[in-house]
Design brief:
Layout (H helix, E strand, L loop, with lengths): L10 E3 L3 H9 L4 E7 L15 E15 L2 E6 L2 E5 L6 E15 L12 E2 L3 H12 L9 H14 L8 E3 L4 H12 L7 H8 L3 H12 L3 H18 L4 H7 L5 H12 L3 H12 L10 E3 H19 L7
Antiparallel strand pairs: 1-2, 1-9, 2-6, 3-4, 3-5, 3-6, 4-8, 5-7
């Protein structure tokens, strides 16, 4: 999408980045650590991880795009990104929380696509406990039991309310891109059908078939995505309602309530109050993501020199 590939400054906080790099490349089943991202703007380049990644978000939003799917993960929810899943991502509102990286072996039988979870309270409690583990110590029976519980919970993703499917057909994708660039665009269904060069009914059927929902519902979902981004940046409900194309604040709030079951003010008030209890443990010095990757690269190169194999650039 627009801005993807733009450089994004991030900050991951752990005590020993080189040690984490070595552990990441090892067969250690679980790595858990806090993270904090500084900036709001910009997409990461498309990439993948050989470990599965569970994100427990306490602040901000994370948007993930994989193939033709776009997911939005709000704070106080846990999100799963499977191993070897090519994706791009961006954060909004100073995203922070904790990550759990699972080894490929631990990812067997887990979801193959990004997803979120209803059982976030239990997952947060498990992640909170894992962040306090000494990563150098072997796993005892209690830790193994906790990992098994974590995997059981990851197997139960919720129905994806905050997901957009981008049509693959070129003409339909052109319409979707135009709407994502300006969700307040209030052109009629007939006008959008003209943009696609299709008759009204043909456009409606084709869009619904590829997007998995009607054009009207898709546009509403796109507006909700944009609204959540702005609200996460603490913009006022009135400002957001106008920016995403609603004529009245009450109509916007009603849409928000219909989609997410509550009002924007209550939705974000609850998340901000809960986010104050962040993990705050494995996060002594602040290092950039590039330094983290450099540490991992050095470890990979050292290991490959010893084994005679080419380094793995992940």
């Amino acid at each position: 999408m627009s801005e993807k590939g733009q450089v994004r400054k991030s900050m991951f906080s752990v005590q020993n980045m080189e040690e984490l790099g070595r552990l990441y490349e090892s067969d250690t089943p679980v790595l858990a650590y806090d993270f904090k991202r500084r900036m709001v703007e910009g997409w990461t380049p498309e990439h993948s991880h050989h470990r599965g990644q569970l994100v427990a978000l306490t602040q901000g939003l994370i948007i993930v795009e994989a193939g033709s799917e776009r997911w939005m993960h709000p704070s106080q929810r846990c999100a799963w990104i499977p191993p070897n899943c090519k994706h791009a991502a961006r954060s909004v509102g100073g995203a922070a929380g904790a990550m759990v990286d699972l080894s490929p072996e631990m990812c067997r039988g887990l979801p193959k696509m990004p997803c979120m979870f209803n059982s976030s309270e239990l997952l947060f409690a498990i992640v909170h406990r894992m962040v306090g583990w000494d990563l150098r110590q072997p796993l005892d029976a209690a830790k193994k039991h906790l990992i098994a519980t974590l995997r059981d919970e990851i197997r139960q993703p919720e129905r994806p309310l905050l997901r957009l499917t981008i049509p693959r057909e070129e003409r339909l994708a052109r319409v979707a891109e135009a709407l994502l660039d300006d969700v307040a665009d209030d052109r009629t269904l007939d006008a959008w059908a003209d943009v696609a060069g299709m008759a009204r009914r043909t456009f409606m059927r084709a869009f619904s078939a590829q997007a998995g929902m009607s054009f009207g519902r898709w546009r509403q979902q796109a507006r909700l995505f944009a609204a959540l981004e702005m609200l996460a940046q603490r913009k006022s409900v009135t400002e957001v309602a106008i920016a995403v194309g609603y004529d009245s604040v009450s109509a916007f709030i009603e849409m928000f309530r219909t989609m997410l079951g509550t009002t924007p003010r209550i939705y974000f008030r609850g998340r901000r109050s809960q986010s104050r209890g962040s993990y705050g443990r494995r996060c002594a010095p602040s290092l950039t993501l590039s330094r983290y990757r450099q540490a991992r690269s050095k470890v990979s190169c050292a290991a490959s020199s010893a084994s005679g194999k080419q380094p793995s650039m992940r």
